[in-house]
Amino acid sequence: MYTFEYERLGEAKAAVAALSGDADAKFLAGGQSLLPTMRLRLAQPSKLIDVTRVASMKSVTLAGDTLTIGGAVCHAQVASNADVKRALPGLADLAGRIGDQQVRERGTIGGSLANDDPAACYPSAVLALKATVVTDRRRIAADDFFIDMYQTALEPDELITAVEFPLAERAGYEKFRNPASHFALVGVFVAKFKDGVRVGVTGAASSVFRPAELEAALSKDFSVASARGVTISPDQLNEDMHASAAYRAHLIPVLAGRAIERAMSF
């Protein structure tokens, strides 16, 4: 590690102002992605602005047909919160299977989305559930938020303060996880709405994406058989030491079917 300044602030506006004054400063939430890169000296921020004590970013509220989760809410809180479990049990289930208990107690939804790891679980839910990412200055639709590997629509000094989720009729997530990291080798989140089905796939490509052919099939027939009858092209999918592109393409409809089974079990 190396020398850096640390500042903990209690208001979102103050945190943004502190970071805006230093081009090399970074927001710190759970630190599950940032601190390892600092230890490897892949990131060397001059200052860390801790946002975990911003009260407005620590709440979970359910109002009408919208569930709002603060950007500094940790995975364990999402998994155990009564409103999340009642309104979007598939999201609570996803949060409860991120990493291990230590990671779930520290990592936050806002930090995960801002980092946009191509194998992270939350992006698939945010995309499939057509969520809205709320920042200190604007609202960003999920379809416009994720750009590419570790790249989002956020400005360098922009802070995720909350995420708004419309309530789905059914929603479920399944992943084939890397046994070492617990990240998704492939993860699939399926969400059924009145106007159709949306699917978010993580771990399979450089960024989370929606497979149009799978969504079309499931919008006609929301069933395991329908999901497994879809063929996904391996073109543009990841190929590495863990799995070939063809294997990842095979996993997507299989996991979609399992996600439907989970969705129907809640």
From TrEMBL:
Molecular function as annotated in GO: FAD binding; oxidoreductase activity
Superkingdom of the organism of origin: Bacteria
Keywords: FAD, Flavoprotein, Oxidoreductase
Cited PROSITE patterns: FAD_PCMH
Protein name: Molybdopterin dehydrogenase FAD-binding protein
Domain FAD-binding PCMH-type: 1-170
Record InterPro entries: CO_DH_flav_C, CO_DH_flav_C_dom_sf, Diverse_Substr_Oxidored, FAD-bd_PCMH, FAD-bd_PCMH-like_sf, FAD-bd_PCMH_sub1, FAD-bd_PCMH_sub2, Mopterin_DH_FAD-bd
Keyword hit for Oxidoreductase: yes
Pfam families assigned: FAD_binding_5
